[in-house]
Amino acid sequence: MAVAMDFNAPGRVATAHAVTTLLVARGVDTRDDLHEWLGLPDNRAALRTVKGVGPKSVDYIGNLVGRSQVAVDVHLRSFAMDAGVVGLGYEELQAAYEESAAVLGHEPGGLEHAVWRFKSQAGM
What we know:
Order of helices and strands: HHHHHHH
Shape: globular
Strand content: under 5%
Number of helices: 7
Number of strands: 0
Oligomer: single chain
Largest sheet: none
């Protein structure tokens, strides 16, 4: 798995194995299954019980399976700080981005990706 996923850190491989084990145990076999499964708060919470999986990881996985979400990371935090938005927790900052996307007429995941790309190319 480490070679296939280009993971150099043993912890990441262990996390990927644990996530896979959880999903198999829950009957999640396909991308569509995962998309639907992530729509339930209890399932998102179950995924968070895996060591190394936080809210950003859950939201990022959701984006990978077609859920338009904001996965708040260092780039999105930096962008918010540049705009004078400071002191918000993960969910509060996520809500701010989601509301901004709605006001601007964009999908949350699209806005998240645009901000991420801008900050990552700018070198933060």
